[in-house]
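Action item from last meeting closed. Structure (263 res):
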């Protein structure tokens, strides 16, 4: 809509000044601000990457410094899905203090089945809705494809973010879907077991698939800790069940730190 059609000619002078002089300056200022912040973010990320090889952790730190909390986590998740799913194909070698959790579990098959189910459902919905409205059908198909790509990114992130036994805390991760750092003084006991557990507000599994995925380790705490999940959603817990490929070695190494913190 042309504003000049609704303004008398003698009132258009200031409007023209704004359109041809003030507005370009504002746009240039906004563009400069964005470019400077991007450069600052890239520089900050490179500094953090030298200290930590974990892309997800570094990206979170940078975005939280530049963006509001909710916007930052939304941006981090979307970028991480693309990064782990389609950019980072390099095999992640685990260090001595790191443990995988996807090789000996049914997790890859579970993600594969989920992607397959999304594909079947998307196809069925497309042909059903296309009879009514082809445009809507393709929109829903696009959403379905995007969902499948997200699931693929989640699955790829599992191998890139192993569990770590650090000097001050136990770093538990489930790809980019769940994570928590637990101080050793908060740990009462680590039990190697596959026994079923009843999930409640303070008893959880690190996997978002709940009982669809089995566990072989249960960690009991003396105080409430917080599990950070998808898009920064937080859930409290005192008991956490998870699967670790080398569970016995994990317990032996972790118990050393737990013992040192209880002396």
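Sequence:
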């Amino acid at each position: 809509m042309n504003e000049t059609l609704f303004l008398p000619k003698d009132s258009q002078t200031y409007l023209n000044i704004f359109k041809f002089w003030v507005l370009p300056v504002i746009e240039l200022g906004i563009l400069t601000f964005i470019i400077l912040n991007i450069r600052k973010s890239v520089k900050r990320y490179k500094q953090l990457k030298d200290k930590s090889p974990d892309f997800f952790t570094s990206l979170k730190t940078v975005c939280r410094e530049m963006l509001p909390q909710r916007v930052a986590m939304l941006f981090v998740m979307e970028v991480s899905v693309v990064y782990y799913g389609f950019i980072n194909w390099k095999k992640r070698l685990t260090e001595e203090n790191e443990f995988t959790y996807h090789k000996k579990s049914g997790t890859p098959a579970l993600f594969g089945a989920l992607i397959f189910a999304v594909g079947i459902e998307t196809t069925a919905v497309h042909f059903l809705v296309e009879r009514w409205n082809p445009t809507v059908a393709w929109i829903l198909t696009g959403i379905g494809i995007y969902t499948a790509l997200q699931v693929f990114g989640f699955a790829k992130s599992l191998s890139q973010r192993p569990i770590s036994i650090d000097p001050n805390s136990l770093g538990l991760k489930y790809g980019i879907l769940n994570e928590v750092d637990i101080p050793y003084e908060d740990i009462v006991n680590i039990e190697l077991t596959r026994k079923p557990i009843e999930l409640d507000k303070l008893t959880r599994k690190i996997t978002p698939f709940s009982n669809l995925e089995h566990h072989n380790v249960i960690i009991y705490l003396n105080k409430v800790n917080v599990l950070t999940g998808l898009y920064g959603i937080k859930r409290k817990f005192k008991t956490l069940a998870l699967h670790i490929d080398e569970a016995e070695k994990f317990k032996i190494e972790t118990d050393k730190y737990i013992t040192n913190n209880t002396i």
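Note appended to the action item: Confidence is low (pLDDT under 50) at residues 1-7.
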